[in-house]
Amino acid sequence: METLETHKSLPQLNGKLFLTDGGLETTLIYHHLIDLPHFAAFDLYSRTGGPEILKSYYEDYIRIALEQHTGFILESATWRCNPNWGYKLGYDPEALEQINRLALEQLKTLRAEHQNGQPFVISGCTGPAGDGYSPAETMTISEAEKYHSPQVLVLKESGADMITALTMNYTEEAIGIVLSARRAGIPVVISFTVETNGALPNKESLQSAIERVDAKTDRYASYYMINCAHPLHFKALFKSTEQWHRRIRGIRANASCKSHAELDNSNKLDEGNKQELAAEMQVLRNLIPSVNVLGGCCGTDHSHIKAFCST
């Protein structure tokens, strides 16, 4: 295990604007008409032409970062590349390890080809063992640490600069991921999802979730993010300045104002209003000065991220 100072080694912690990508899965499904069972984008690494599709996807965002002279976070397409979801698609542990490695190799190649002096950070992405919208089956902290440790370790060994856990919807799993990253000696970011009332799907407040993770992990997480929610769902949490707000550094917003339940039951892409979303993201940056990592989630594509840069 490395020192707790590991979590302070990321370039985005210096306050420079960093961009990342948008809604990978919704882009692939609705814009590229690709079938993605269980929203598992990692499966493309096993399909003919799949890696090329992902390369083109990343390059759409890289061009924006280069044009805007921002930093960029390359997020691996491994959100679902963990045992429960891999099993549903017929992947055994060895095959999942190989996919995680392939995903990181692609990101390292993209960075070498495009970095051009700007800071590019490679993030190994993990996600919940269960449904990202509803924590119907939960794990204890120790169960979560044991479950996520193999993926965290292989992502680190494959060259990730950090781990990002997207769409976390209850605290125990988030704590387990932070502990697994601490054990592996790699920086980690926790990104919670919230409902239309600004609370986690299990009804815990965002403040409580962040403070509990910090308390159980000696504040090892480098920072926190919010993803898979529209700014209107959580903006009210930041009307007054509070200490815990400073732990939030990133927003990956949904394009749609709809609830998770509405999005889950929809078979049509809701791209929202890009200009209004960009304006709301700027409002959030004013409310939370620590936020300097901007990206999208469900329904967003590179045009949404470009709009963020024009406000």
Summarize this structure as a short list of keywords or feature phrases.
311 residues; alpha/beta; TIM Barrel; eight-stranded parallel β-barrel
> What is the CATH class?
Alpha Beta
Number of helices: 11
Series of secondary-structure elements, N-terminal to C-terminal = EHHEHHEHEHEHEHEHHEH
Cα-atom Rg, whole angstroms? Answer: 18 Å
Taken together, the total number of domains comes to 1
Distance between the termini: 42 Å
Instruction: Count all strands and give the number.
Output: 8
Strands ordered across the widest β-sheet: 1-2-3-4-5-6-7-8
Structural class: alpha/beta
3D shape: globular
Helix content: 40-55%
Q: Note the beta-strand portion.
A: 5-15%
CATH homologous superfamily descriptor: Homocysteine-binding-like domain
The largest pleated sheet is described as: 8 strands, parallel, barrel
CATH fold title: TIM Barrel
CATH architectural type:
Alpha-Beta Barrel
Average pLDDT score: 94
Low-confidence stretches: none
Explain the overall architecture.
By secondary structure, this protein is of the alpha/beta class. The chain is 41% helix and 14% strand. The protein has one domain: Homocysteine-binding-like domain (TIM Barrel). It has 11 helices and 8 strands. Helix 10 crosses helix 11. The longest helix has 22 residues. It is globular, with a radius of gyration of 18 Å. The relative contact order is 0.14.
